[in-house]
Design goal:
Chain lengths: 113, 678
């Protein structure tokens, strides 16, 4: 689950920043994806400072990537349910992020990190 | 207007040029282009050629109290970054160099020739000396500046006076010299080497650091104790009061940020000191700005990390933690590297992941990708490029030339893996969508880096949409307000970014307005890109910014002229045509003005908010799934060339156009070279 994937299996997101516009960013691991996916709320955009850009992912693509590339079908299905339940991009991201955060913690606990 | 310093490094000769004879060009870029046109006899040479002429120009507003217009310096000459041609190009940096140069009595500097050993140009008021710089060669940009400060100022405390000349009236100051220098990247003739001033001001694009290195010019320092004469001081102060009354009121903001220093809103509302834009400033810091700037968009920090850096240079290694990111930024400034060319660690990692780059691979590389995101990775990467070690031997030539050498250029430009849409310059804003940026770039010489309307048409709707808030103004309101300021056209369709609008006549007018505005007001009069034009102002009822009233009002107060906004645009058109003539002599042809393959082939995949006019209504659209249509873009080019009075078959300026601008001699020169449009 936490291993890096290969080039063909990477997930591509877009870093949105006033300084650079929309910059593609290749993501090679679940950790990178968890760190990258963020959307603003004013508090995040301020407190994350350097990361005050928006880390944009196509959330359907994210769901498929987690299910097929990482093989975590349970998480993919759970994310799918949250995407159905919420309307705005920000609400969907917040819900997906929370599930991903929990899974990352479980993985770390299993690895005794 | 005063005088321009002319330095011939080959002959060691120092002379002066009266600025008055170039007054018609305004200042800055206009005068720089005119000087280059006259002094660089063969414009088709390499930027590394000793015959290349480099100008470093101030503007009439430098060192004055005009808001956000006193601290920029314009650098021009044949750059070494452009691909496939090393175009005559420009760069620009902030800080206090231009103000200090004016206080020393100089409007600009012209550098010709090549010294036979490393030199330092030492300017103290009207005393100018070409001095030995062998003792500085090898130092980074910060070390060099400290050495110069010690050499000129002695060991005085920062509170002590420094005498600039002999006697009571010789001039004195508490300021250290303003220093512009190259680092190791420039010394190694890198095409991605920058000029650096103070901690974080850099002229990066164009590779002028490498050009200076080829001239053996390590550093220019200037100490001035004079002042700038203002034609009508009362008018200037009155204009400042008027302008201040329309700006962000820190005691009672009309559009309050959700939190103090909330950077995105800082840009949109013009809130001063929005410095934490880039960095995660978790430590005490205070605002820092260029000379005379009320915005102060940068910062100085308690730790000293990340001082003064404020833009993309701060983002090139955001995969690391904050401390790593700050250090990575400082390393760029110290080595004198242009971030926009070395902002490719992601690309290199892609090649590594593909198995074509790495130890013993097709592209041999010892960068520690297993520690990507760590300080060690970025330190190794920066050092190898700056000193031309390891893979830096290739990357010092710039990423485009490196990819060419590796046999990857065409395929990676077509796929977008290497997102460099024009002339070997990194993508900035999406070239398939935000076309005032991409069209302006492909018609010129570099990534234009002019945010004139970008804040309004793209960032305001993007930020508010992504955080789930209502836009600060509707697309309809925005178009109505801005279009009335885009004189002489005043055409709302200039702001239509729909799939049809980007190929329409309105967009040709938009590009023409933008090219003419920036050539005069931003690059010649040196109004800062992050503050001007002031098109929409959320701090006043009606949302009307101060453009087009403010710019001529400030210029006239300083110069005593009676310039109208339209006359400024016309001078911008004249400068744009002169630059176009220079590029024609360098070999520019219409068929070269095409983008990299991915712009036409790879659809956009992320939302990108811009105003569109569809079904009789203005709205903000996400514009997903777009590519640029090659045939329609070619039709648009014809439309634009005709609007500018250029030959549609070649893109070259015609005699009637040049003569109408008072450029008959330019037409004659083009005709001699067979480059005059028909």
């Amino acid at each position: 689950m936490l291993a890096e994937v290969g080039y063909e299996e990477r997930l591509v997101g877009y870093e949105m920043s006033p300084a650079t516009g929309n910059a593609p960013r290749s993501l090679y691991s679940f950790r990178e994806v968890c760190d990258f996916l963020r959307v603003g709320n004013p508090e995040d955009l301020l407190t994350k400072g350097s990361h005050s850009s928006i880390g944009y992912l196509d959330l359907e693509e994210l769901r498929r990537w987690i299910g097929s590339v990482l093989g975590d079908r349970d998480l993919a299905e759970a994310i799918g349910r949250e995407l159905e339940a919420h309307k705005t991009y920000r609400e969907r991201v917040d819900a997906a992020r929370e599930l991903m955060r929990q899974r990352l913690e479980q993985c770390r606990a299993a690895l005794s990190e | 207007m005063g005088k321009i310093l002319r330095v011939n490094l080959t002959e060691g000769r120092i002379s002066t040029i009266e600025t008055k004879q170039y007054e018609q060009w305004g200042g800055g870029h206009g005068i720089g282009s005119a000087l280059f046109w006259e002094l660089c006899k063969d414009k088709a040479i390499s930027g590394f050629d000793p015959r290349n002429v480099v100008t470093i120009m101030t503007s009439p507003l430098s060192g004055t109290l005009v808001p956000a217009a006193a601290g920029r310096t314009e650098v021009q000459g044949i750059g070494v970054q452009g691909y496939p041609t090393e175009w005559f190009t420009r760069s620009n940096f902030g800080g206090r160099f231009s103000a200090m140069l004016k206080y020393a009595g100089w409007d600009g500097i012209v550098i010709e020739g090549k010294a036979d050993k490393p030199v330092w140009l030492n300017i103290v008021n009207d005393h100018v000396a070409i001095e030995d710089a062998k003792w500085l060669w090898g130092l980074d940009t910060w070390e060099t500046q400290e050495e110069i400060w010690r050499a000129v100022s002695g060991s005085r405390d920062f509170r002590d006076w420094i005498a600039a000349g002999a006697g009571r009236d010789g001039g004195r100051t508490t300021q250290r010299p303003a220093v512009l220098t190259i680092g190791p990247a420039g010394e190694h003739l890198n095409r991605n080497a920058s000029l650096v001033h103070d901690a974080g001001n850099g002229a990066g694009q164009g590779g002028f650091g490498g050009v200076w290195g080829a001239k053996n010019l390590k550093v220019i320092s200037v100490l001035g104790t004079g002042s700038v004469e203002i034609a009508d001081p009362n008018a200037l102060m009155e204009a400042r009061r008027w302008f201040a009354s329309r700006q962000y009121n820190v005691d009672a903001p009309a559009k309050q940020s959700p939190k103090d220093n909330f950077s995105f809103y800082g840009i949109i509302t013009r809130s001063p000191a929005f410095g934490p834009l880039i960095f995660n400033m978790t430590e005490p810091c205070r605002p820092q700005g260029c000379a005379g700037c009320y915005i102060a968009c940068r910062r100085r920090t308690q730790s000293g990390l990340g001082n003064e850096s404020q833009c993309v240079e701060s983002l090139h290694y955001s995969v690391g933690g904050p401390q790593t990111q700050w250090r990575a930024t400082d390393l760029l400034q110290q080595c004198g590297l242009n971030v926009y060319d070395v902002f490719v660690t992601d690309y290199l990692r892609e090649l590594y992941k593909m198995g074509v780059l790495g130890p013993g691979k097709q592209i041999n590389c010892d960068l520690p990708f297993d520690r990507y995101g760590s300080p060690e990775f970025i330190e190794t990467y920066t050092r190898e490029i700056s000193y031309r070690e390891g893979i830096g031997q290739d990357l010092g030539e710039g990423i485009i030339r490196a990819a060419k050498k590796w046999g990857r250029l065409e395929q990676d430009l077509n796929s977008g893996l290497l997102a460099f849409p024009n002339w070997g310059y990194h993508e900035h804003y999406d070239p398939r969508l935000e076309v005032e940026w991409s069209y302006g770039s492909i018609l010129g010489d570099r990534d234009i880096n002019e945010h004139c309307i970008n804040w309004y048409v793209h960032w305001m709707p993007t930020v508010t949409a992504m955080v789930g808030e209502e836009p600060l103004y509707s697309a309809q309101e925005m178009v109505e307000i801005i279009s009335q300021k885009l004189v002489p056209y005043k055409d709302p369709m200039m702001l239509d970014y729909s799939a049809d609008g980007i190929y329409a006549e309105g967009k040709a007018k938009m590009i023409a307005w933008h090219r003419h505005y920036t050539r005069f007001y931003k690059q010649s009069m040196a109004f800062c890109d992050w503050a001007w034009p002031d098109l929409i102002n959320v701090n006043v009822p009606g949302l009307e910014g101060t453009t087009p009233e403010a710019e001529p009002r400030f210029i006239n107060a300083v110069t005593g002229k009676n310039l109208t906004f339209e006359e400024g645009l016309e001078t911008g058109r004249k400068i744009w045509n002169l630059d176009r003539a220079i590029w024609a002599l360098q070999g520019r042809r219409r068929d070269q003005e095409v983008f990299a393959g991915y712009v036409y082939q790879v659809p956009t995949k992320a939302p990108y908010w811009l105003p569109v006019y569809e079904n009789g209504q203005w709205k903000y659209s996400t514009n997903e799934g777009r590519v640029l249509d090659r045939a329609r873009f070619e039709e648009w080019k014809t439309r634009y060339y005709k609007l500018e009075g250029w030959d549609p078959s070649t893109g070259w300026p015609t005699r009637p156009t040049l003569e109408s601008l008072g450029l008959g001699k330019v037409a004659e020169e083009l005709e001699r070279h067979g480059k005059l449009g028909k």
